[in-house]
């Protein structure tokens, strides 16, 4: 059991040394320092300790610096630290600068870091600038002057514009402008057959509109991938207009009929009112005659002469009605 106690004592003596060495190696990344020395990158141990104290990951600074030095780029370690503390991706910026240098693209450290801090992928931007990318637009519907609907799909070849990448509009703006230009080009065509025969006239007109102004891309070409014929919108609009005119005419006719019915009912009411007044007036005649008899204004002979005149008038009206009926027959 004595040898176990000796081992424990040795471990207790060695453990503080191991912890101290681990703490020193954490603050002083000796392996990273040796890699930088052998790569020809002059980085002092004090600089690495200062990065630890400033809460900067030394690997995120030194490893990209080694890659940049091997690629022939002269970068300042303080600028790299400042970009890291600002929240940038130092490794991606250095990779983008190396790719740009190999492709003979003028990309400075200030511009690359500005693009990275703006939230854009600077490495992808450089790759897109070297190898243009093709963007497929959604299906765009437009109507030619002859009323036929056309559905077009365009392929836009773009290249990243590093000068306008900060503050420039993205792909959505490019797609929206290309769609708007396609609608305008098809809408200005006299007939849909002209567009089907020469679809390149759409791309020429759209490309001449300067659609990449204010965007982060440069449009290299616009190619019409597909054009399909849709519905006859013009005929459908005429049918809808005719149906609307029909409904308006029916409504106006119904309004006139209602007014005629109302006028007829008003005439009937007036006629009935006039008949009622005539009946009322006729009812007053016997009373007036009685009053005339009593007052001595009307004699019995006058009354008989009036009745003879009434009978003669009724007979003549009867004979005139029979003659008119015979004439019509």
What does this structure look like?
The protein is α+β, with helices and mostly antiparallel strands. Helix content is 67%, strand content 11%. The chain has helices at 2-27, 30-38, 45-53, 58-70, 77-85, 90-102, 109-117, 122-130, 171-187, 192-197, 200-207, 233-295, 300-328, and strands spanning 133-136, 140-143, 148-160, 217-232. Strands 1, 2, 3 and 4 form a four-stranded antiparallel β-sheet that branches. It is elongated, with a radius of gyration of 52 Å. The termini are far apart. The model has no long low-confidence stretch (mean pLDDT 79).
What descriptive keywords fit this protein?
329 residues; 4-stranded antiparallel beta sheet; alpha+beta; elongated
In short:
With 329 residues, the protein is an alpha+beta fold. The chain is built from 13 helices and 4 strands.
Q: Please provide the ordered H/E string of secondary-structure elements.
A: HHHHHHHHEEEHHHEHH
Strand content: 5-15%
Classify the secondary structure makeup into a structural class: alpha+beta
Terminal Cα span: 153 Å
Number of strands: 4
Low-confidence stretches: none
Question: Which value, in Å, is the CA radius of gyration?
Answer: 52 Å
Note the total helix count: 13
Q: Major sheet: size, sense and barrel closure?
A: 4 strands, antiparallel
Q: What is the mean pLDDT?
A: 79
Helical content band: 55-70%
Q: Oligomeric state of the chains?
A: single chain
Silhouette: elongated
């Amino acid at each position: 059991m004595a040898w176990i106690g000796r081992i424990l004592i040795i471990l207790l003596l060695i453990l503080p040394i191991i912890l101290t060495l681990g703490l020193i190696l954490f603050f002083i990344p000796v392996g990273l320092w040796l890699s930088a020395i052998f790569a020809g990158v002059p980085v002092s141990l004090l600089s690495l300790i200062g990065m630890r104290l400033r809460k900067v990951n030394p690997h995120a600074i030194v490893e990209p610096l080694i890659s940049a030095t091997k690629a022939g780029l002269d970068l300042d370690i303080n600028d790299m630290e400042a970009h890291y503390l600002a929240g940038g991706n130092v490794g991606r910026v250095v990779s983008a600068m190396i790719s740009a240098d190999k492709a003979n693209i003028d990309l400075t450290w200030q511009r690359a870091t500005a693009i990275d801090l703006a939230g854009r992928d600077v490495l992808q931007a450089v790759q897109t600038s070297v190898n243009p990318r093709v963007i497929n637009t959604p299906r765009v519907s437009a109507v030619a002057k002859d009323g036929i609907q056309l559905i077009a799909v365009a392929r836009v070849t773009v290249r990243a514009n590093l000068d306008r990448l900060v503050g420039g509009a993205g792909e959505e703006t490019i797609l929206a402008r290309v769609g708007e230009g396609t609608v305008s080009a098809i809408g200005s065509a006299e007939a849909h057959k002209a567009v089907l025969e020469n679809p390149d006239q759409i791309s020429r007109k759209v490309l001449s509109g300067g659609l990449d102004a204010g965007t982060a891309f440069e449009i290299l070409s616009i190619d019409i991938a597909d054009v399909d014929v849709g519905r006859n919108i013009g005929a459908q609009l005429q049918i809808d207009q005719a149906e609307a005119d029909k409904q308006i005419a029916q409504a106006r006719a119904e309004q006139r009929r209602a007014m005629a019915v109302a006028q007829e009912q008003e005439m009937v009411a007036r006629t009935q009112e006039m008949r009622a007044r005539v009946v009322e007036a006729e009812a007053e005649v016997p009373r007036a005659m009685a009053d005339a008899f009593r007052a001595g204004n009307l004699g019995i002979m006058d009354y008989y002469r009036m009745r003879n005149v009434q009978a003669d008038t009724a007979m003549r009206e009867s004979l005139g009605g029979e003659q008119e009926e015979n004439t019509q027959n």
